[in-house]
Amino acid sequence: MPIKLPIIMALLLATTARAQEETISFPAAVRFETGDSWQYEGRKFRLFGVQACIRGTAYHAPDGTESDCGMQSIASLAALFSTGSIGCQPVGRANDDASFVVCAAQIDNATVDVGTALISSGAAFAAAYPSGAPVSAAYAVAEAIAKDSGSGLWAGRFAHPVSMLLDKR
User: Fold this and answer.
1) pLDDT in tens, 33-86
2) Which of 21-35, 50-64, 110-124 has the lowest mean pLDDT?
3) Where are the beta strands (DSSP E) in the chain?
4) In angstroms, what CA-CA distances link 89 with 13, 22, 152, 161?
5) Phi/psi zone of residue 49: left (φ > 0), alpha (ψ -120 to 50 degrees), beta?
6) What stretches of 17-158 show up as alpha helix (H) in DSSP?
7) N or C: fewer beta carbons within 10 Å in the chain?
8) Which range is the signal sequence, renumbered to this chain (predicted)?
9) DSSP structural state of residue 155
10) Are 115 and 10 in contact (CB under 8 A)?
11) What is the pTM of this model?
12) Is 97 helix (H, G, I), strand (E, B) or coil?
């Protein structure tokens, strides 16, 4: 299966990342801000290497309906949080003091990297540095597979959030 490499790479990243603190477990009851960030107990968390659709941008489904692309990403993240136990390992701090985290979900006795799950299902995208290089090569591969197969958001039309953010530099 072609998806094994991204999953293995993402899990390797999750297990080898230098931790700043203990693993944090999240219940389903967090406050989602975007499809890659949430608040819990007064702290903000953001998935490392993941970029969700930007809220307020249009998503055009194959059937012609239009919706908020950012809300589509939020719904996917919320659905993933509701399906299993989520544990995250902090790997750094963002400029806005959010904790960058790499997360795993326990779903049906399997451990799944949250970033890989979102990106490979077409619900989110591989984040990029200002240079345009992907933050995670494994996530870039997962995105390419999702795009090629027309998974999730890739089935319709939208403005790619990484392109939009890089154009604003």
Assistant:
1) 999 999 998 999 999 999 999 999 999 999 999 999 999 999 999 998 888 788
2) 21-35
3) 24-26, 31-34, 37-40, 43-47, 50-51, 58-60, 66-68, 85-93, 99-107, 110-113, 125-126, 157-158
4) 10, 7, 27, 25
5) left
6) 69-83, 114-120, 137-149
7) N
8) 1-19
9) G
10) yes
11) 0.82
12) coil
The domain defined by 4-164 carries CATH number 2.40.50.90: yes
Give the side-chain half-sphere CA count within 13 A for 35. 30
Q: Which two tokens stand for residue 3?
A: 């998806």
What pLDDT does 32 receive? Answer: 93
Compute the distance between CA of residue 127 and CA of residue 9 in angstroms, rounded to an integer: 15
d(CA 12, CA 8): 6
Tokens of 113: 């990297």
Banded model confidence at residue 28, pLDDT cuts 50, 70, 90: low
> What is the residue type of 1?
M
Check whether 2 has a pLDDT greater than 80. no
By the 8 A CB rule, do 90 and 100 touch? yes
Angle, vertex CA 129, rays to CA 47 and CA 146, nearest 5: 60
With tokens 């619900």, the residue in question is: 123
* Averaged pLDDT, 126-131: 94
